[in-house]
Specification:
Blueprint (H helix, E strand, L loop, with lengths): L1 H75 L1 H169 L5 H12 L6
Helix pairs in contact: 1-2, 2-3
Amino acid sequence: MIEKHQQEFNQKVRTHNDDVEIQKNQISQLKGTIKQIREKNRETMDQINKDAHKEIEQIEQKNQANLSQVKDMGLRSSAELQLTATKLKKVQKEIERIADQIRNKESNNHASKEKIDGLREDLKRHSQEIVHKDGIIATNEKKILYLKKKTQELEKFKYVLDYKIKELRRDIAPREQEIFLLRIKTNEMDKELRKYNTINSQLGFMVDDLRSRQETMQEVIMQNRDLIRNNRMYINNFKNAVHCVTQYIDEYDSLKVAVNENLVKYIQD
């Protein structure tokens, strides 16, 4: 058991070491990707800084030109010095705005990278959809060719049908008179049919009345049958009681007991 436990422990140690090596490899790969991303971001940051320095140099050049003009104008009037001071404040605000733009560009760089990754996934998905739709288009083109052939056949069949329709129209003209006469007969038969329908509806009401009467009579008959059945049973029981009593007609005591047991309930009233 100790050796088995030691083997299991060694196996777990080996698997743990393998997992550690795999995780180290993954960490090294992640570090490499992070380094690449940092280099890319460093290049963009350098470009942004260069652009910012150029803009700042341009602004400084503008400021120097403005300062020379301000010095010339300062000799003329103190009021224009005040205007140059306001311009300097605007320039400082412009510098702050450029710094904000630099920060915004840094944030937009990260967002643009995420957008690029999303666009690559969309491109891959769209390319798959395009391949699928190309297959659908090919099948549809085959169907279109098949349908064109069918339309050509149908046009030929249409030409034949048009010729037959023209012949049938020539034959229809003498039959229209027959159709007119048949319509007159049909109208007369419709009138007779309406008359018979009214009679049929009246007979239907009569049949419903007779059916309801029949149902009530059947109920009465069932009640009378039950009454007759009960009366027959009563009569048969009465006859049986009389027959039982007559057997003891020569014996007074037995006759009295038999009458009290069997016959009294039928002659109490």
